[in-house]
């Protein structure tokens, strides 16, 4: 069976900088359009918006005066209906889940959700945010900004917070024996170029994208916007993980491929709509229009994004 080409792009990518960055949501979108269909869609968007800009981005669609164009794009009878898919990541919950997965014996999704819910209440928002920043710091060999914490300092903090009791304290108490795991993780990160950092949401999102489009045993070839994080070694790792589902990955400049530009639109508007929902200022109409596009496996702290 010949592979189907899925054009992809992302929005909110800051690598392993999950906290304190410019964005709190990461979105990875894939669209199944022919080049001709994508070109026609871009022409229609240009005609409806009427801006003289040479290159349109998602922020054009997100302006209040262009709300009808955005609703048309996401509508059940719009050009992306059944042809678009987006995987969302709540970056803070992604960090909490990474901590539970790496440090807790028999860490589970339920345990991560419990810690995500109870941590800010048990320790206070400032102390909780410092703890998460310390965790992300200790897993990075060369932190570029924010909190810089050694493994020794991090586990001293874990021991201190674990004394607080309650559900959050009990979960952190399970982290105290994680020194060897952190050491092994850092050693592999330093020596294995194909190793995927647990703090980078891109590769897991790509895996979900491929699994979505290959659900009927159709192999997928990704046509992806140029992305430095998807190194040759990591592409090989993706192929190993996905097997025959992934036929290949080809990188293009988004300015030269209308399909990738459409994926860029979908990723950008999805990230903004999801961020507004995450921060309790969501637009019910736009959230409802976005829901059919959202992957059921999106990493969302308050449960599934979709109703």
TrEMBL record:
InterPro entries: DUF3800. It holds the Pfam family DUF3800. This is DUF3800 domain-containing protein.
């Amino acid at each position: 069976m010949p592979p189907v080409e899925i054009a992809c792009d992302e929005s909110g990518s800051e690598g392993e900088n999950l906290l304190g960055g410019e964005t709190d949501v990461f979105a990875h979108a894939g669209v199944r359009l022919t080049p001709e269909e994508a070109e026609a869609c871009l022409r229609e968007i240009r005609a409806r918006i009427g801006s003289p800009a040479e290159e349109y981005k998602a922020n054009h669609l997100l302006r209040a005066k262009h709300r009808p164009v955005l609703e048309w794009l996401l509508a059940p009878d719009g050009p992306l209906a059944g042809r678009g898919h987006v995987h969302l990541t709540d970056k803070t919950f992604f960090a909490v889940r990474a901590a539970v997965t790496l440090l807790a014996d028999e860490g589970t999704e339920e345990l991560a959700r419990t810690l995500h819910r109870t941590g800010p209440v048990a320790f206070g928002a400032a102390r909780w945010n410092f703890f998460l920043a310390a965790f992300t710091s200790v897993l990075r060999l060369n932190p570029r900004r924010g909190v810089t914490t050694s493994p020794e300092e991090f586990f001293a903090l874990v021991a201190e917070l674990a004394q607080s009791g309650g559900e959050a304290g009990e979960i952190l108490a399970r982290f105290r024996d994680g020194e060897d795991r952190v050491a092994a993780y850092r050693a592999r990160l330093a020596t294995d170029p194909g190793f995927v950092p647990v703090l980078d949401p891109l590769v897991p999102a790509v895996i979900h994208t491929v699994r979505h489009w290959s659900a009927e045993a159709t192999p997928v070839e990704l046509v992806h916007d140029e992305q430095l994080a998807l190194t040759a070694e990591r592409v090989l790792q993706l192929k190993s993980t996905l097997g025959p589902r992934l036929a290949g990955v080809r990188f293009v400049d988004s300015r030269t491929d209308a399909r990738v530009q459409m994926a860029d639109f979908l990723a950008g508007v999805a990230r903004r709509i999801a961020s507004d929902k995450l921060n309790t200022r969501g637009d019910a109409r736009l959230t409802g229009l976005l829901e059919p596009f959202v992957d059921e496996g999106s990493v969302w702290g308050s449960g599934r994004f979709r109703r």
